[in-house]
Specification:
Elements: H1 2-8, E1 11-17, E2 23-30, E3 33-36, E4 44-46, E5 56-58, E6 67-75, E7 78-86
Antiparallel strand pairs: 1-2, 1-6, 2-3, 4-5, 6-7
């Protein structure tokens, strides 16, 4: 199974954590398959400067974009979850 995760790479999922603690899907990247959701369609992408870069880029920022975002990186048995806050001024 370890070889399969190397062959297919990382699965990267970005979600926005709403005020009521629900999560809204933003972007899902599974290598060749990429999908954006809702009002994020056409406004988000991964920077991908290298194979380990999961930086989310949001264009045409709106006040509704303010909040906490969660990134999940899944590669076989190794998962990593990071939360970041986006503040607008």
């Amino acid at each position: 199974m370890e070889g399969l995760s190397m062959m297919f790479g990382n699965r990267i999922k970005w979600t926005k954590i709403e005020d009521d603690s629900t999560e809204t899907d933003v972007l899902l990247d599974m290598g060749f398959h990429k999908k954006t959701y809702g009002n994020f369609q056409g406004r988000v992408y991964l920077l991908e400067t290298d194979d380990s870069d999961a930086t989310l880029v949001i264009t045409n920022l709106d006040l509704k974009d303010y909040g906490t975002y969660k990134c999940e990186i899944i590669n076989g048995m190794n998962d990593k979850v990071v939360e970041v806050d986006l503040e607008l001024q």
